[in-house]
Amino acid sequence: MDDRIDVRGQAAVVTGAATGIGRAIALRLAADGMNVTIADLNEAGAAKVAAQAAEHGGKTLALRVDITQAADRERMIAQTRDAFGRFDVLVNNAGIQIISDPLAVDEAHWDRMMNVNAKATWFACQSAIRVLLETQTRGRIVNLASIAGKMASTVLHPAYNVSKAAVLAMTKTFAAAYAAKGIRVNAVCPGVIQTDMQDAVDAEFAKLQARTPEAVRADRLSRIPLGYPGDPDMVAGAVSFLAGNDGRYLTGQAINVDGGILTY
Ligand SMILES: NC(=O)c1ccc[n+]([C@@H]2O[C@H](COP(=O)([O-])OP(=O)(O)OC[C@H]3O[C@@H](n4cnc5c(N)ncnc54)[C@H](O)[C@@H]3O)[C@@H](O)[C@H]2O)c1
């Protein structure tokens, strides 16, 4: 069967794309030739990334989106269709971390974590798949999970671990449900990637453990077989592969981009 795709001129939405990994993904998909919507709570940051992505020659759109809000999730896809005339790819990248001892997790912590990382991702997948089915598009969804969804990579972001396991479970579920329609749903599991989120995590861990952020960082790095933290670009490369032609025979997968920490 010839199921090749050409992503040039196709349309992608990347959530949480004002900074960090999401920014790198938006720039990479633009470099691949896609028109890209940069959706983030941080509107000014999104606009900056949209301008940079446009240097690759495609169209871009910056939107202020809170992915926990149903109306915003619907709007980011609708406005993408209005601006680019189509919708092909959703990258669910927006996410948060809250650092805490497991026994200190209260219901507000749990709800916030699950609302942003798990619930919003589930319903964004739903919105995307509805449009892909309606337009008979062989679309792709890539969800940003984490190695924390496969192992308790640390016990100090306990509900985060759970939220990312939920992302992996929903990735497999949507993949199985819509494979016959040609819609592919995969996940990427970053390890330690150098971003604002990672800096914040080191600072919070240091406070909880009465250590310096440098000591926490050294400890984290010592567990990476390749010996150094990843760059957002490395994660973006995996997303580009999964969203593109070379990944066309993959669905329901969860690819680790972690310097060798996990081998499953
Ligand atoms: N950095 C790492 O080492 C690492 C490791 C594993 C997984 N991840 C995952 O990769 C993704 C990106 O991580 P990052 O390190 O780039 O994070 P980051 O904190 O640097 O960026 C996250 C972006 O998401 C946006 N965001 C947060 N809540 C939002 C909401 N409700 N609606 C819209 N946008 C929202 C923020 O404004 C920010 O621009 C996350 O899902 C994270 O869990 C990161």
Task: Explain how this protein is built.
- By secondary structure, the chain is α/β, with parallel strands linked by helices.
- The chain has one domain: Rossmann fold, CATH 3.40.50.
- Helix content is 47%, strand content 14%.
- It is built from eight helices and seven strands.
- It has a seven-stranded parallel beta sheet, with helices on both faces.
- Helix 4 links the parallel strand 4 and strand 5.
- Helix 3 packs parallel to helix 4, helix 4 packs parallel to helix 5 and helix 6 crosses helix 7.
- The radius of gyration is 18 Å and the shape is globular.
- The mean pLDDT is 97.
- It binds nicotinamide-adenine-dinucleotide (NAD).
- The site of nicotinamide-adenine-dinucleotide has 28 residues, from helix 1 and helix 6.
Task: List the SSEs and their pairings.
Layout: E1 11-15, H1 20-31, E2 35-40, H2 43-54, E3 60-64, H3 70-84, E4 89-92, H4 107-134, E5 140-144, H5 158-178, E6 184-190, H6 196-209, H7 213-222, H8 232-243, E7 254-257
Parallel strand pairs: 1-2, 1-4, 2-3, 4-5, 5-6, 6-7
Helix pairs in contact: 1-2, 1-8, 3-4, 4-5, 6-7
The chain binds nicotinamide-adenine-dinucleotide (NAD).
Residues 15-16, 18-22, 40-42, 65-68, 93-96, 116, 144, 146, 190, 192-193, 195-198 line the site of nicotinamide-adenine-dinucleotide (NAD).
